[in-house]
Prior knowledge:
The complex is a heterodimer of chains A (180) and B (178).
Chain A: H1 2-29, E1 39-52, E2 60-73, E3 82-93, E4 100-111, E5 117-124, E6 129-130, E7 142-152, E8 155-156, E9 158-168
Antiparallel strand pairs in A: 1-2, 2-5, 2-6, 3-4, 3-7, 7-9
Chain B: H1 2-11, H2 14-42, E1 48-50, E2 65-69, E3 81-84, E4 93-102, E5 108-113, E6 137-145, H3 150-157, H4 159-175
Antiparallel strand pairs in B: 1-2, 2-6, 3-4, 3-6, 4-5
GO cellular component, one term (chain A): signal peptidase complex
Organism (chain A): Daphnia pulex
Subcellular location (chain A): Endoplasmic reticulum membrane
Amino acid sequence: MHTFLTRGNALLTFTLSVLAGLTFFCFLSTALNAYSATANIDTVKVLVKNVPDYSAQKEKQDLGYLMFDLQADLNPLFNWNAKQLFIFLVAEYETTDNKLNQVVLWDKIIQRGENANLDMKNMNTNYYFWDDGNGLRGNPNVTLTLSWNVVPNAGTLSIIRGSGSHSFSFPNEYTNVRAQ
Amino acid sequence: MLGSMLEEFQRMNKRQFFYQVLSFGMIVSSALMIWKGLMVVTGSESPIVVVLSGSMEPAFHRGDLLFLTNPTDEPIRVGEIVVFKIEGRDIPIVHRVLKVHEKGNGTTKFLTKGDNNRVDDRGLYAPGQLWLTPRDVVGRAKGFLPYVGMVTIMMNEYPKLKYAVLACLGLYVLIHRE
């Protein structure tokens, strides 16, 4: 019984050490990857409305509405250590109230093995484009960029912004809530 | 086997006994030093956290380990995975930043959402709270290790297991000669 325990102990320690070493190697092997790619983004329809945001304050805030095109080939980003890509489309702009605003409009999870060559037209956003205030009407420079968060099997989580962005401006007039 | 261990225990004299206790104390304080050292280096009050819920699946599952840093001079940006605590509650929540609004003087407010949740986290915040601020953030997830945290979850859910493991460890350290 004494030798059984010793053997079991040795086996367990060895297994754990090998697993730890493999995990560390997994992390090292992709620690320096750049994960860069280009995205082509375009907006199809851009409106701005001014309505009360019932999920936040009760005052009226600017609500942007847009549809977009997106084309990006993200297949080269996957490797044995990239478990999934969390892709998100960000609108970044400046208003008189806030110097920097970043709003995620759309996101998608792509796991290793799924097709990562995106080519989408006339996409609706996943989330409402609420501004914190009334700074969207007539805003001359709203920039759309695509970023991704690489989730590894083991290792560092990195967030990379894709090269390629699209800037647009909101119209100077609010659209009536009922018109679409 | 237990009989021979007890015999060995009775044969030890006082000096050896105290030596064993000292070794035990050294192990405990080294572990504590490493933990506190990590806290200082990363700037986070909890540099390693275990994922407790499935709200970030399929990226993080229950039992995964996250390494956090908290560089207070780096601003919070959209897409980052933040670990935050709601005021008045102990449990840290691991979610992703969805919206950021930052004023010219640096005051930032942001909204979070779990990848696997349908809606954003406003329902989780304190009543009347609409945004999070950098003060609520415990750290940002920078590294990831799968499955390792399951041990912590099992020890928390079955406290008897925790006491049993600690008792066995204590007994082994006190009795073993080396």
